[in-house]
Amino acid sequence: MKVLVVGCGVAGICLAHELLQADCEVQLIDKGQNVSSSVAAGIINPIVFRRMTLSWRVSEFIPFAYNRYRELEHKTGVSFFHPLVIRRLFASEQELEFWKKKQNLPEYSDYMETLTKEDLEFPLEQNTFGTARVKQASYIDAKGFIRANRDYFQSKNLLLEENFNHDELNPAEAVYKGTRYDFIVFAEGKDSTYNPLFGYLPLQQTKGEVLTIRSETMYSDESLNRKCFLLPLGNNEFKAGSTYVWNTDDTIPTEEGLQTITENLKSITSEPYEVLEHNAGVRPTVLDRRPLLGLHPEYPKIAIANGLGAKGYMLAPLLMNELVQHLFEGKEIPKDSHINRFAYSKHS
Fold it and tell me: Which end of the chain offers a freer environment for a tag, N or C, measured as fewer CB atoms within 10 Å?
């Protein structure tokens, strides 16, 4: 099997490794400007804090991602996967009660630490309603992950750094620039909105901004979360964010984004800090918060792998495995991930 993967962000990288593991001949094309996957904090969090619910399919995604990232560390010779404790500073009495009700339920107990007196009395001045700890969380050093995998693919002559030219694609035959492929898979992130084959899908461009900061006095043993995240990176450095601005392709950091994160950080810490970097990326999101996977309804050799949103680093390993099984073995993609949940119109 010979497969062309368009895009080398987290989805394209995980897809390419799944294909290589299936003994496929793989070619990647990427223009070298994937901002979102490298800017992301890369946090893998099993809990949705608003109502203390479990993230979608978390019991499948987390163990699969853990194993795959360890394998990719070994493969690339670079360490980028880091276990993490997330401490939620409750924003209300209601959040505390949600946690209390769910912490001992069988499906939740793997991800929620049982509240202790120390959690409730955690010594931060912003702790007004108590705190709780999330289990089985982790983070990916996103910039290191992207760089390590691009270097790996380049060392194998598998990655072309150039723009994909749709004028040179024959989608019916899966031929690109005169080369025939068994499948061509578009994993372009936000740029899928400009893809003439998949423009009918309701992919949104959602901008997010993050800060890298330094502080000698901030608490750095765990990642703190309320209104925003504060992720310790070591050496007194932290990532903080993020923001959400919908329907924009703009990756320029803004003063408004800086002020939003700065204000939200006050709900976590009052310690002084220095801003080292201010970055922005654009996430590929879908209104129903589910990915876009599957073969094009008109061209059976053309596929898409997109819409992973803010949870891309948790979702990508298993979703790309499921897509490969669909392409080669005919295994059905779960309905809530399949693009056929959206009506196709070649004129849209």
Answer: C
Gyration radius of the chain over CA positions:
21
Instruction: Please report, for the chain, how many H helices and E strands are present, in that order.
Output: 9, 20
| Cα–Cα–Cα angle for 218, 221, 227, rounded to 5 degrees | 65
Q: Please, which residues have CB within 8 angstroms of residue 241's CB and are 6 or more apart in sequence?
A: 41, 208, 209, 210, 211, 228, 229, 261
CB neighbours of 183 closer than 8 A, spacing ≥ 6? 1, 3, 4, 174, 301, 302, 303, 327
284-343 pLDDT per residue, tens: 999 999 999 999 999 999 999 999 999 999 999 999 999 999 999 999 999 999 999 999
pLDDT digits (tens, 9 = 90+) for 153-204: 999 999 999 999 999 999 999 999 999 999 999 999 999 999 999 999 999 9
What residue spans of 190-302 are helical by DSSP H? 255-265
Q: Quick one: how far is CA 85 from the chain centroid?
A: 18
Half-sphere exposure at residue 326, Cβ-oriented, CA atoms within 13 angstroms: 25
